[in-house]
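# step 3/5: fold
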Amino acid sequence: MDRMNEIIEILNKANYEYYVLDNPSITDQEYDRYMQELIKIESNHPEWSRDDSPTKRVGGEVISEFKKIVHEKPMLSLSNVFNEDEIRLFDERIKKEVKPNYVCELKIDGLSVSLLYKKGKLVRGATRGDGVTGEDITHNVRTIKSIPLVINKPIDIEVRGEIYMSKKSFNNLNKKRAMNNEELLANPRNAAAGSVRQLDSKIAASRNLDCFIYHLPNPSDYGIKTHYEALKFMKDLGFIVNPNIELVDNIEGVLKYIDKWTSNREKLPYEIDGIVIKTNDFKQQELLGFTSKYPKWATAYKFPALEVLTKLKDIKFTVGRTGQVTPNAVLEPVRLMGSVISRATLHNEDYVLAKHIKIGDVVSIRKAGDVIPEVVEVKKDRRNGTEIEFKMIHNCPICNSELVKKDSSYYCINDKCDKIKIENLIHFVSRDAMYIEGFGDNIVEDFYNMGYLKNVVDFYELKQYKEELMELEGFGNKSINNLLSNIEKSKNNSLERLLFGLGIRYVGSKTAKILAKNYLNIDNLIQASYDDLIKVKDIGEVIAKSVVEYFQSNRQLIEELKKHNINMSYLGKTNVNENFAGKTFVLTGTLSSITRNEAKEKIEELGGNVSGSVSKKTDYVVVGENPGSKYENALKLGIEILTESEFLLKISK
């Protein structure tokens, strides 16, 4: 019996060192040898069996059904946020009540569990269930080696956490299932959830499950005042707490943490599906309280889905500002990368035919360049015979003019087509153009149809109709005043915004900035000849021709805009730096003292260019924390590498 007790202490200590401290003091071979000796003693003397014996982890207990467990405190789920705006709104709601700091945690993709200990010994493990009533899974919980059977203090305590399956264990499990001609499991989360709901604990024991602990339901019982302190307390008791938890002072720290793990989640040995954000102070949590479903003091940022499935209900045709007619998929609404998507571009007729898209298909969609939703492929195995073949239209859906095919797209070439005019107006007020807040697509279209807007100059004459506009349904004094105020603000924009807003063909926001920086004001640009323009870096023949033709046809429009005192000069800095002028930079990894966007703006401000990929034309690669493949490509090509500090020094010269 003394030897049995001695081995149990050795093995429990070894488990603690291995799983909690990540610092084993005995080898795997020694561990196995002790385990075999312990099994032999216990088999000869079953009456000496201890509940905290490591042999309990090999499984063997079989139950007939899962007993119901009522949680003393409900295991509530968390509310979700999906983008930066929603995260900031969460912060604003918190700050109306308290001055918080936050604990950021990785959201482990597994199964929630409640663990109950009496006098330091594990007596029960339960699933979350519906939050009030869960299922008793103690027989399976005992098989998870990272869950201590006995903790470091003989106290009564409940802790909560997440049971999960590592990527390695999941892959090994599926390899075994493939060899046995068994159906493969879909993902580690489903595998973990299925494992802990086995009646035979040997199955759970064979799955190599793990557990992180993240919540202490009764912190006041132990004199603990903050969540961060509670995490340390639970770790000291012998529980595994995720090592990647951070205490941050404000929402900017939260966003930085999210950026870091969005970039690095693939490097983790387990799956995460988001970030949990919790108000740290327990008194503040108590003050903020709960809704019927969620704590108000916490939320979960969910990583955007990269690709999702939904049904294509219809195909509608739209007319863009250039007259291009585009087929668009009308979808059953689905959340994708932080936003709800109900439409996706189908590009053109050739795209639809090449992908064999039919109305009624189940399709996968993603955001092209992380911005524009597009249909990736049809799930043909989901067809049931009711799908309808695609047919391209040959007349404009707005003015009924016959469409003209150019390359792979169809165009309405009727200059008087209402839709083309409306799209031009929408473009003029858009975020990267003149950015007149308050003018959504529907408002622009309504104002056009009512006769208030016919061209871009009309935005600056709307104040004449203030009284009439306030009489419109859905508008009042405040909303119209806001619109008019935002119109006035837009007069102070820099030249590049105006150039982009005018909708000059082939002139995107980047090209508009190049033109503005080189010509400084619109009169200089109007006077520039084709030969002058093609001498400007990154301005090719097609763009030069388009700019010259635009100003030949639209001089009167520019003069009318001038009468409204709209700024037509470049307001950005022109202090070109010889270290940056004409040089191409690539940014990779997480920068700590400057954001990627700020770095990009600074490079362009000093005369440089920023590219998204590394090539032989790249001059410098700026490397932050945890760089990706761009860093490796730069090394292969012998491109000069700049650390963040070297880059900042280069900026300051």
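# step 4/5: annotate
Residues 70 and 147 are 21 Å apart (CA to CA).
# step 5/5: archive (pending)
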